[in-house]
Write a structure and sequence with these properties.
A hairpin with a 3-residue loop joins β3 and β4. The two termini are about 35 Å apart. This protein has 2 domains: about 90 residues, Translation factors (Elongation Factor Tu (Ef-tu), domain 3, Beta Barrel); about 170 residues, Rossmann fold (3-Layer(aba) Sandwich), CATH 3.40.50. It has about 280 residues and is α/β, with parallel strands linked by helices. The relative contact order is 0.14. α6 packs parallel to α7 and α7 crosses α9. Strands 10-9-8-7-11-12-15 form a 7-stranded mixed β-sheet. A 6-stranded antiparallel β-sheet has the order 4-3-6-1-2-5. The structure holds flavin-adenine dinucleotide (FAD) and FE2/S2 (inorganic) cluster (FES).
Length: about 280
């Protein structure tokens, strides 16, 4: 992180592409030497504040563990995110990061891994998948369970073939509701989880999606025999500072920005029940 964690590094948009309806993936080139050096510090699960000068900043999870650029995926929801969607390649942006904790990829080594991604929640899981595929021998069997409300909202479709064909990897995808071109699974991700029923032996699960989905995905995992110590997730909250100073993102005594956003199931169970 920068000496002054509230000062964004200056960057420019090196690439922008739509990865699902209403979701754009931004490739950001950090132009200051300190900013360029910060790229090497990012780990899967961490996040950064991306700013549009004159509009404001918002936090986004690291969306890639590959390539020369910082990649962040943005769903157009409100003021900052719509301003980001209006930017074009070459436009200046600011970046504060990396922030927060990360998925314990070293601890996960040697385990089978089940990835459970719902909607835009798939974005922060993409670097986890990249890390496993790019260091394939370090990890056991990989099961990717992927879902969205509809086919046009599926994230990372251009990587599906790579995931399907990767060694010791199985990939399953479902949508809540199909369309005339969809011939795959239909139903909630919890249904897919029960159908695939991944082995619990020496396995770690990594889940991301809306809070309600994480809650029910955890219940299904417990039904399948996973223990709280096997289940990881990453959470979102409204944030201001991102560095544990303002108290905006508290979850009980914890701050999601510094104690998270990555948590084990037993750390977030009660918090998730608040969304029911
Ligand atoms: C650690 C972290 C990682 C995130 N990763 C991503 C990501 O990879 N991609 C992405 O698109 N978004 C991500 N978000 C959410 C993103 O930060 C918000 O969507 C963004 O702040 C909205 O800003 P805005 O000014 O456009 O919206 P606003 O104008 O502030 O709000 C628009 C609407 O979105 C709601 N909203 C705003 N922020 C949040 C939030 N954090 N959670 C739920 N609802 C919210 C508001 O209540 C309102 O209804 C992440 C948030 C956190 C904390
Ligand atoms: S966003 Fe300020 S304490 Fe977490």
């Amino acid at each position: 992180m920068a000496a002054n964690p509230m000062r964004p590094y200056v960057g420019r948009l090196a690439g922008v592409r739509e990865v699902a309806t209403g979701v754009k993936l931004f490739q950001i080139e950090l132009t200051e030497p300190e900013g360029q050096a910060s790229l090497a510090e990012y780990k899967p699960g961490q996040f950064a504040f991306l700013s549009v000068f004159g509009a404001g900043e918002a936090p986004f999870g690291l969306a890639s563990a590959r390539g020369p650029y910082l990649e962040l995926g943005v769903s157009a929801l409100g003021h900052v995110t719509n301003s980001l969607h209006a930017l074009e390649v070459g436009d200046p942006v600011g970046v504060r990061g990396p922030l927060g904790n990360w998925f314990p990829m070293d601890q996960i080594k040697g385990h089978d891994v089940v990835i459970i991604g719902g909607g835009i929640g798939g974005l922060p899981l993409r670097p986890v998948i990249h890390t496993i595929l790019d260091h394939r021998a370090d990890y056991g069997h990989l099961t990717i369970l992927w879902a969205a409300r509809s086919p046009d909202l599926l994230i990372a479709t251009d990587e599906f073939d790579e995931w399907r064909n990767a060694p010791d990897t199985e990939f399953h995808v479902t949508v809540d509701q199909g369309d005339e071109n969809w011939s795959g699974n239909v139903g909630l991700i919890t249904k897919l989880m029960e159908e695939v029923a991944p082995s619990t032996q020496n396995t770690i699960t990594v889940t991301c999606g809306p809070p309600i989905m994480i809650h029910f995905a955890f219940l299904t995992q417990q039904k399948l025999g996973f223990t709280p110590e096997q289940m990881l997730t990453t959470l979102e909250a409204r944030m201001h500072c991102g560095i544990g100073k303002c108290g905006r993102c508290n979850m009980g005594e914890k701050f999601i920005c510094v104690d998270g956003p990555v948590f084990w199931q037993y750390e977030v169970k009660e918090f998730l029940e608040g969304f029911l």
